[in-house]
Write a structure and sequence with these properties.
By secondary structure, the protein is an all-alpha fold. Helices cover about 75% and strands about 0% of the residues. The protein is globular.
């Protein structure tokens, strides 16, 4: 926990010390060691040390029953996809994610927008747009967040795996941010039509009933 607090404060040196202590602790549980290694890999990622991050993640992902195996596989796949093709874009994306981890949302957004503009063909552009929308919404910039999600849905409707999440997030912005219930309901309904098997479908149906004033 202290390590994660140091990351949130931007002090990765102290965070590394905490996580390495957990890894070396003889009484640490396997899941605790896995989390500590995963956090160390994240720090490598934030600093642009992709090979080192991948090496650490590979050790966790071997045991698919481990709690952090899925997280390790997800981050590892993201790094492998982007490090070999657009390393500079990935480096900037990691820097933005580190800023976001420190809740410096308004500083992270311009970095991500620069990535989107400078590397429009990079595989991570849709991820960058998703993060921009999320950070804008967290900062109370609801109109800007809606525009980011709409852009993601328009420009990556054939390729992104985040479309159902983008539609759900957009609907939430309309429901709770800009307070436009009609738009929110229409967006939830669009999610159900476009992605009926989405894991978010049940929540979308519940939100639609809520917006209609039906008992839940």
């Amino acid at each position: 926990m202290m390590g994660k607090i140091h990351v949130a404060r931007g002090d990765t040196a102290k965070a590394e010390g905490c996580f390495k202590t957990v890894v070396a602790a003889p009484d640490a549980l396997p899941d605790e060691r896995d989390e500590a290694v995963f956090r160390l890999a994240e720090i490598d990622y934030f600093a642009g040390r992709f090979d080192s991050a991948l090496q650490k993640l590979g050790g966790i992902a071997v045991n698919l029953k481990a709690d952090y195996a899925n997280d390790a596989l997800r981050l590892g796949a993201f790094l492998q996809e982007n490090a070999g093709t657009v390393p500079e874009a990935l480096k900037q994306f990691g820097a933005a994610e580190f800023l976001a981890r420190q809740e410096k949302n308004t500083e992270a957004v311009p970095v991500l927008l620069s990535v989107i503009q400078s590397y429009p063909q990079a595989p991570l552009v849709d991820d960058a747009l998703m993060m921009v929308g999320t950070l804008q919404a967290s900062a109370g910039l609801f109109r800007e967040a809606a525009a980011s999600y709409e852009r993601l849905l328009a420009e990556f409707k054939e390729s992104s795996i985040e479309l159902d999440r983008a539609e759900f997030n957009l609907a939430e912005v309309y429901q709770y941010g800009t307070h436009e219930p009609a738009k929110a309901q229409a967006t939830y309904e669009r999610l159900l039509a476009d992605h009926p098997k989405s894991i978010l479908a049940g929540r979308a149906r519940q939100r639609i009933r809520q917006l209609r004033g039906e008992s839940l």
